[in-house]
Design brief:
By secondary structure, this protein is an alpha/beta fold. It folds into two domains: about 220 residues, Alanine racemase (TIM Barrel), CATH 3.20.20.10; about 120 residues, Lyase, Ornithine Decarboxylase, Chain A, domain 1. The chain is built from twelve helices and 18 strands. α4 links the parallel β3 and β4. It binds pyridoxal-5'-phosphate (PLP).
Length: about 375
């Protein structure tokens, strides 16, 4: 049975990319599998990353961490977005390591530890200039509370996150690193020596060896996509391979005369007789409506551009009058031997991260080994 649409995930590419990144650094690799592994599928990708030698898994949400555990994965897992009121007891009972970005959350984790009699493994997160996660003005308050309770927790990590790692040489990166070292020294002055210091995301891992520390947290590069195509270029320069190919079926093919308007709003009017193809995928599946009349797909090796507005479940492409494409043919939207996720990102005015993470839940993920 042919499927209407599918995202083919090359798990061999995930494993290869982890191995390739590991070969570039002496740090351990933490595979970032938040957001359903950037839309690629949480459990199969986590397993492929571990097969490639990843030591840690990283997620944003506690629910994501628990899904990994209930699937039987025993590797260390960090969850770094656990707001106040999260079920920290449940996190501890599943052996999930927790990020501590505020004194409030630290207190909740301590309280949960008392109830469950498990020593929490924490990763202390400092804000070094991004003004997003981590300790900033409450850092000194936290340091004194931590000193008081240091026997109740295990300091597994000390970490921060770059705002501009995709701009190597940018002075903000050096400033963040020096603030990080300063705060680490303050922690060490209290006699607290975290097991793992970590800072680098994909961009820093690929371009800044000073940032690699004990663990690198690799997301987009593991999926074979560039952290920033304009500043860093294609990932093929590092030997990385894109893991996702997005496909949909050609639902209809028809001759349409010059002068016809295509799609909602009649925004595109044909200036030539042509064959149009209706592709069975739309914005509900993650095809941004902003790609209307711009991005290109590939059918039987030939490119065809979107014409008119993208609808909820379908969009129309101009196949050209001499096309041999027929209903039932497979259309490659991006990936292997087609446009890249970056070309779709450019057409949609966004970044490749958003293209892959927005592929909707009604698109089945098919795993190639
Ligand atoms: C998402 C995320 C990463 C991975 O970033 P990439 O640019 O995809 O490598 C690393 N660390 C944290 C804290 C993140 O939230």
């Amino acid at each position: 049975m042919t499927m209407r649409a599918q995202a083919e995930i090359d798990l061999g590419a995930i494993t290869h990319n982890i191995r390739t990144i590991s070969a570039r650094t002496s740090a351990k690799v933490l595979a970032v599998v938040k957001a359903d592994a950037y839309g690629h599928g949480l459990i199969p990708v986590a397993q492929a990353a571990l097969d490639g030698g990843a030591h840690y898994l990283g997620v944003a949400l506690l629910e994501e961490a628990i899904s990994l555990r209930t699937s039987g994965i025993t590797a260390p897992i960090i969850a770094w977005l656990t707001p106040p009121g999260s079920d920290f007891q449940k996190a501890l009972s599943h052996d999930i390591e927790l990020s501590v970005p505020s004194a409030d959350i630290f207190r909740e984790i301590l309280a949960a530890a008392k109830e469950s009699e498990v020593k929490p493994r924490i990763h202390i997160e400092v804000d070094t200039g991004m003004s997003r996660g981590g300790f900033l003005e409450d850092w000194n308050v936290f340091l004194s509370e931590l000193a008081e309770h240091q026997n109740e927790v295990e300091a597994s990590g000390f970490w921060s996150h770059f705002a501009r790692a995709d701009e190597p040489g940018e002075v903000a990166n050096a400033r963040q690193l020096s603030d990080f070292e300063h705060k680490l020294a303050q922690l060490q002055d209290l006699g607290i020596h975290p097991t793992y210091v970590h800072f680098a995301n994909s961009a820093a891992t690929l371009t800044n060896s000073d940032a690699q520390k004990d663990i690198v947290r690799v997301g987009i590069a593991m999926y074979g996509l560039s952290p920033d195509i304009t500043t860093l270029g294609e990932v093929s320069q590092w030997g990385l391979q894109p893991a996702m190919t997005l496909k949909a079926i050609l639902h209809l093919v028809k001759h349409v005369p010059a002068g016809s308007a295509v799609g909602y709003g009649g925004t595109a009017v044909l200036d030539h007789d042509t064959k149009l193809g209706v592709v069975a995928m739309g914005y509900a599946d993650g095809i941004s409506r902003r790609t209307s009349s711009s991005a290109a797909v590939t059918i039987n090796g030939e490119r065809a551009h979107i014409i008119g507005r993208v609808s909820m479940d379908q969009f129309v492409v101009d196949l050209g009058i001499s096309s041999n494409a027929k209903a039932g043919d497979m259309v490659t939207i991006f990936g292997h031997q087609a446009s890249s996720a970056d070309e779709w990102a450019q057409a949609a005015g966004t970044i490749n991260y958003e293209i892959v993470t927005r592929i909707g839940p009604r698109v089945p993920r098919i795993y190639l080994h």
